[in-house]
UniProtKB/TrEMBL annotation:
It is a multi-pass membrane protein. The chain crosses the membrane at residues 6-36, 82-102, 114-133, 153-174, 195-216, 222-240, 247-270, 297-320. It comes from the Bacteria. This is Cytochrome d ubiquinol oxidase subunit II. It is found in: Cell membrane. The keyword Manganese does not apply. It comes from Glycomyces mayteni. Belongs to the cytochrome ubiquinol oxidase subunit 2 family. Keywords: Cell membrane, Electron transport, Heme, Iron, Membrane, Metal-binding, Transmembrane, Transmembrane helix, Transport. InterPro entries: Cyt-d_oxidase_su2.
């Protein structure tokens, strides 16, 4: 297998891992005004993701770094053409991260409500925009002979991208509801499970429409298989939740996100950023790649350090695996 193929797969895996892990903490943030009926419940919700949310973002940083080093032309065209979308995502992540840190610095309910709004808005905006970004990458954008984006910001907000954003937002919210059910106790846990079932049902329609659109417009045999299994996993998650097996329902939404992401990258291959203006201007895994020497050095670095990073993050999740009990949180 060529090194360009290996690194395309590696970047796809990194983004997929980011969507699965960051997906549930985006979901928790989005659901704070819905499930957090009083201060202790909202604090419990934040505590479920407090030890891991910033670690989850390492997957994104690593994916961006790998893209920059392995496919510099892809990185340059994507980040210049999608500049405003990425700026808004970065702004949402910054506001959300600051809110986590500053929420507890004030004593008034108004102070906390303001930062809670930042957490919710930042989580929802980032989730929606990531869906739009991935959809536009698969759909393609107008590129000239120098691989420069020639479209406008509004061109990135097309129907396919907006449907992708809505799908990702709802899927992450469902994922977050099931995560809260597993990581909290009592009434908050029960309400999270019930909400997960309703959100999952609401997610099914746009998710099916988006994946069907993807397959018809851009898919291949491999993406078809992945899309079918992803849809079956989402349906299985709803059935398992209905039977009270919410742990398996959470696993099913994780599988759904993972397979849907994999299907999108398979539909993209062998391109990395198709050109809608002229197919000859499309970036693919060959003309966007770095030199073989660079890819070879990167491969050895990844072989050494990737297992260490994975073991450390796995250990983090194991340490903070216990449920957060609302009744044990002191009244503010």
């Amino acid at each position: 297998m060529e090194l360009t193929t290996i690194w395309f797969i590696a970047i796809a895996v990194l983004f997929t891992g980011y969507f699965i892990l960051e997906g549930f903490d985006f979901g928790v943030g989005m659901l704070m005004p819905v499930l957090g009926r009083e201060e202790r419940e909202r604090r419990a919700m934040i505590n479920t993701i407090g030890p891991v949310w910033d670690g989850n973002e390492v997957w994104l940083i690593t994916a961006g770094g790998a893209m920059f080093a392995a496919f510099p032309h892809w990185y340059a065209s994507l980040f210049s053409g999608f500049y405003l979308l990425f700026f808004l995502i970065l702004l949402a992540l910054i506001v959300r991260g600051v809110a986590f840190e500053y929420r507890g610095k004030g004593d008034t309910a108004k102070w906390r409500r303001g930062w809670d709004l930042c957490i919710t808005a930042g989580s929802a905006l980032a989730a929606f925009l990531w869906g739009a970004v991935v959809a536009n990458i698969v759909r393609g954008v107008p590129l000239d002979a120098n691989f420069d984006y020639t479209g406008s910001f509004w061109g990135l907000l097309n129907g396919y991208a907006l449907l992708g954003g809505l799908t990702m937002l709802l899927l992450f919210a469902t994922h977050g509801a099931y995560f809260l059910h597993l990581r909290t106790t009592g009434d908050l846990s029960a309400r999270s499970r019930a909400l997960g079932l309703r959100l999952g049902a609401a997610t099914a329609v746009p998710a099916l429409a988006f994946l069907l659109w993807t397959q018809i417009a851009h898919g291949n045999a491999v993406s078809l298989v992945l899309i079918v299994v992803a849809v079956l996993a989402l349906v299985a998650g709803l059935a398992l939740d209905f039977k009270g097996r919410s742990g398996w329902a959470f696993a099913a939404t994780a599988v759904t996100i993972g397979l849907a992401s994999a299907a999108l990258f398979c539909a993209l291959w062998p391109d990395v950023l198709p050109s809608t203006s002229d197919a000859a201007n499309s970036l693919n895994h060959e003309n966007a790649a770095a030199t073989q020497k660079t890819l070879g050095i990167m491969t050895w670095v990844a072989i050494v350090f990737l297992p260490i990073v994975l073991l450390y993050q796995g250990w983090t999740y194991w340490v903070f695996r216990k449920r957060v009990a609302v009744e044990r949180i002191p009244v503010a």
